[in-house]
Design a protein that fits this description.
about 160 residues, six-stranded antiparallel β-sheet, five-stranded antiparallel β-sheet, elongated
Length: about 160
């Protein structure tokens, strides 16, 4: 397997990791699964992320993490939900975080943090996606420390 940026082989012990943040206040439509498109690079050892999508430069076990904080309350009602889901090659793989409204709460701002481990073959694409069904479009805060995604090969 070749490093995308240099003509060298990626060793079994070489770090493969990427973290991206967002200050965009990305909007998530009601009842739609939407990929996070974080664009501010914190680090990306192999330039493996494009528009929030991570393409595995080598096969291995990867940890996928994310944090997302809603900008304001949607007036969540009982049984309305928001989920953070890891997708592999466009197919849902793992729920990383979920929140379900228990009662009508006008002032609640749910935050989602999640992590999962997945096996990725070289060239497979992983994304972190969000679902919410509050009844309208919602946006995330513009604080980059509250909106990030990360991908790390752990084995």
């Amino acid at each position: 397997i070749r490093n995308k940026d240099a003509p060298t082989t990626i060793s079994a012990t070489e770090v493969v990791a990427a973290k991206y943040k967002s200050t965009a206040g990305q909007s998530i439509s009601d009842s739609t699964v939407t990929a996070l498109t974080h664009a501010t690079k914190v680090y990306d050892t192999h330039n493996a992320v494009s528009s929030g999508a991570f393409t595995a430069p080598t096969s291995g076990l990867y940890q996928i993490e994310g944090f997302a904080f809603w900008a304001s309350s949607a007036g969540w009602s009982s049984l309305e939900v928001t989920h953070m889901i890891a997708y592999i090659d466009g197919v849902g793989d793992s729920y990383m975080s979920s929140w379900t409204g228990q009662n009508a709460v006008a002032s609640l701002q749910p935050a989602l943090y999640g992590s999962t481990k997945v096996w990725l073959n070289a060239g497979q694409v992983a994304t972190v996606r969000i679902f919410q069904n509050s009844g309208g479009a919602l946006t995330f805060t513009t604080n980059a420390d509250q909106n990030w995604i990360a991908f790390t090969r752990i084995k």
